[in-house]
Amino acid sequence: MHWDPESPGRMSPLEHALVSWLPRRRWFAGGGRDPHRVEIVSAAELTTDCAARGALVIVEVSYPDGDTELYQLPLGQRTVLPSDIGSAAIMAAADGVVYDATVDSGLMGSLLAMIGGAETSGSIGFCPEPGAWITGCEPIPGRPLAVEQSNTSVVFGDRAILKLFRRLAPGVNPELELHRAITGARVPRLLGAIEGTLRGAPITLGVLHEFAAGSRDGWLLATEAVRNLVSGVDDGSAFVADVELLGAAVADVHVALADRLGTSTMDAEVLADVLSDRLDRAIVAAPALARQADRIRAVYRAPGAAGEKVLTQRVHGDLHLGQVLRADDGWLLTDFEGEPAAEDRLAVHSPLRDVAGMLRSFDYAASQVGDAWSRYQLERWLSRVREAFGAGYGRESGVDLARARSVLTAYELDKAVYEVAYETRNRPSWAGIPLRAVAAILGG
Ligand SMILES: Nc1ncnc2c1ncn2[C@@H]1O[C@H](COP(=O)(O)OP(=O)(O)O)[C@@H](O)[C@H]1O
Ligand SMILES: O=P(O)(O)O[C@H]1O[C@H](CO)[C@@H](O[C@H]2O[C@H](CO)[C@@H](O)[C@H](O)[C@H]2O)[C@H](O)[C@H]1O
Fold first, then answer.
1. Ligand 1: nearest atom to the Cα of 215
2. Ligand 2 mean position, distance from CA 303 (Å)
3. Same structural domain for residues 197 and 276?
4. Is the same domain home to 152 and 235?
5. Ligand 2 pocket check for 340: Cβ under 6 Å
6. Which of 29, 323, 350, 399 is 20 to 30 A from 149 (CA-CA)?
7. What pTM does this model have?
8. pLDDT per residue over 243-273, tens digit each?
């Protein structure tokens, strides 16, 4: 097949086509660089009952500066294409077109059935979780989510959602590792996974979860609440009450992670060094931060100066309103992969890191509208939201956020600094939101 690995050194026609196709994908993380070489390093053939061939392919992308990255490409090949294939087509060959298979509902159905059937293909295993309804299931057509993010998620009849990781790193993906550990906590139920080995190391290609049908994400709900507040539809109290439940859900997940994966302590000086390294990297993307660097580092050092120890554990790592779903029976936390492209040298953090992420997210939501009167209203609403989140979090975890103020402030500042870099790279017109937060924390 076109996706069979070639002998090293030569690029196949498909690899050539991928050199220009890949950088145009939303999930491609090359940071504006164009690869000069793509090599197929693994291909696991799919078992299909439709008129298509398919495979889960792993490619290694090389850049002129010597850097390399691994990506997963689910590929299909057909002579008669599915309708609406759009930009999924990669290469036309005499025996059919090769395309991104996530748009092919039949091939995605085959993938689901392979997980249900506990199949293996090459070095890849399709693994149902014990007792999950997926075991032995028939293929259900799958449709990709309209919003493409860092990865590609495919929904099966509102029953299951399969996240196919795009950029791959050796090792078990934390999304799978943490979900397996905290089954029963406020996260969507894990139904299965696609995992295997590459060059002798474990690798996770996909995770399958119960789909939270009818749920809405926290960002939609928060920005709707902000609009309703400023247009006088209501006083924002309904969302404030819901945020207390969100605080309790985050605490529930933290308690489960601590119970099942353990806790440890860290000197606050170590945390200050880690946050300081992150600041150095943020300054590369957003040099304007350099002017405030000394004052930022002073905030990071404050807990150490007070002789504090920091309780650490596995955490979510990139918690914000877009990562929480309000389902009929309460909030669920999703997407445990941590920050995209995280270069953090710590595997564990204080759970206050996630609390800080949510607090920053409320600020983002409140920054979506803006004249002087609404700013005044929104500042008051924001205090209520922060208080409600802290109350729910404290009730469920026993942690009094007011007593953890200096560590929490260090994490809030760290998140705002990260956001300045993230926005400068990805959405420059949003950079003012975290820049104002950095100034407010330093001034307060
Ligand atoms: N179990 C689920 N049920 C319903 N929607 C979900 C579920 N898990 C994730 N989603 C939605 O799918 C989208 C992509 O998920 P996410 O984990 O954030 O992917 P990515 O890693 O690509 O950022 C998000 O909009 C999220 O709200
Ligand atoms: O969802 P991802 O894991 O890709 O997270 C990245 O992108 C987020 C934006 O989509 C970014 O979040 C920032 O913007 C959000 C509003 O769009 C806001 O709610 C968050 O608080 C803010 O951090 C996230 O930081 C980034 O890692």
1. 4
2. 27
3. no
4. no
5. yes
6. 350
7. 0.93
8. 999 999 999 999 999 999 999 999 999 999 9
